[in-house]
Amino acid sequence: MARHRGRGMAAINYPIGMNLGGDPSQALVHSNPEGKFTVTLSAIDLGQGMKQVTRQIAAETLGVPIADVYVDTADSDTGPHDMGSFASRGTHRVGNAVAAAAKEARGVMMEAAAEELEVNAADLDTDGRGNIHVKGAPSRAISVKDVAVAAQFRQGKTIAGRGIFLIPLSEVNPETGEMSPVSCYAHACLVADLEVDDETGEVTVLKMTSAYELGRAINPKMVEQQLVGGAWMGMSHALFETPEPYYPDTAHGPRDFNEYVMPGPGDICPHDIAVLERPAPDGPFGGKGPGEMCANPVLPAVANAIFNAVGVRVDSLPITPEKVLRAIKAQGGARPQGAPGGRR
Amino acid sequence: MAKTPVQFRLNGSDKAVFVDGGENLLNVLRRGVGDMSAKYGCGQGTCGVCTVLVDGEPQLACLTLAETCAGRSVDTALGLSDGPNLHPLQTAFMEHFAAQCGFCTSGMLMAAKALLDRNASPTREEVAEAISGNICRCTGYEPIINAIMDAAAKRGGGSNREQGHARV
Ligand code: FES
Ligand code: FES
Question: Which of residues 255-284 of A touch B (CB under 8 A)?
Fold first, then answer.
């Protein structure tokens, strides 16, 4: 009886967002009389960082400090409509809507500033630190705060903007079955190194090595955070988690965390990640976002690595020790597939 | 049902509450005294989000009878910071991006505090062991372990500090 090393690889093209009737997101941006901005959304932050990313996008587009922007995702009853936080669509769909709304609000802000400075709005620029000045003449300036006060109390203007980003419904061509449901794909490749114990059927993932292409990483630390956490979840889905019963009677299915098995902090492995940034032409500042893609390639890579290690193809998830053992038994023992390039 | 008066110290201040027979500490914290930092996850001792310290020992508040806390000290994540000054563990969690949704965070912080209070320079394995009763769905544990190792190192322990797993 022995432990067999295996290496498996998987590459994916991952569509950002979905299209089952059109995929819109809306955003509203407005300033208060102090020149602080609120972005109102109905998409919510589940921990993936959408609030931070949309805050960065709004601040950058408005040309104001990030501390002066607040993102409010409080209430989908009163907020602008959004399809929601799923399908890895947050950065791309919501981010684009926020960029559009912030752009419109910036236009009003610049008009209001132009009126105060008695210049043409096209000659003005923001310094990103809370001021608006005449291009080439930084001393001819007014603070965003003073512009907001003037707009509110003298000019009677609302510094506000509306944004919508819509991927319209893609009709299916009845002749060919073709459709174009998505405009934007992210890509990844992941290699899993693991060990299979042919006596217990247990699989231990030893190392993951991956490359992700996800447009511009608008917040690189959060991208890393998602990729690390998502790979753990992919490993968990590949080898551990199932809401289905282990045996035919559903009553034997897991009912709680004692029975719903997941890898713990002692089961994690080193993960080398390379992030490749190729800004998407239709993404906000080129962003696509990682999202669900961070878990996906782990599953096929692990399945392939198990085949490489012991020569069995397990075609249902999760790949439990029981399934591995049954498959090894069915083929009369482990059949290591060897390593191209003489790795071992 | 008769209620029992229970006095205990919560994050250093005295509390007096009436508890139902069999009522658990988590319920008393969240409903009785309004400390929402300990979370309600599974309610059966399997997820760790309700971890608090009772006389310095980590305990699952959902499985702790409130009456057994009479006269004892209970510490929750709410008491970690000193006014605006975050606890070194909180700072480390922030700097290492060790929270995404944050639901596990207060339980993780308290499990980590219990560890560092008795072992100032734990190994990675000891850190993993200390949080092995706490489930995190988001982070993959790696950033949490890195944060706890870093907090230990900055507190002056951490002779066993090792490189984190993930490199970008
Ligand atoms: S709520 Fe106490 S362990 Fe889950
Ligand atoms: S950060 Fe979401 S459960 Fe740990």
Answer: 256-258, 262, 264-266, 268-275
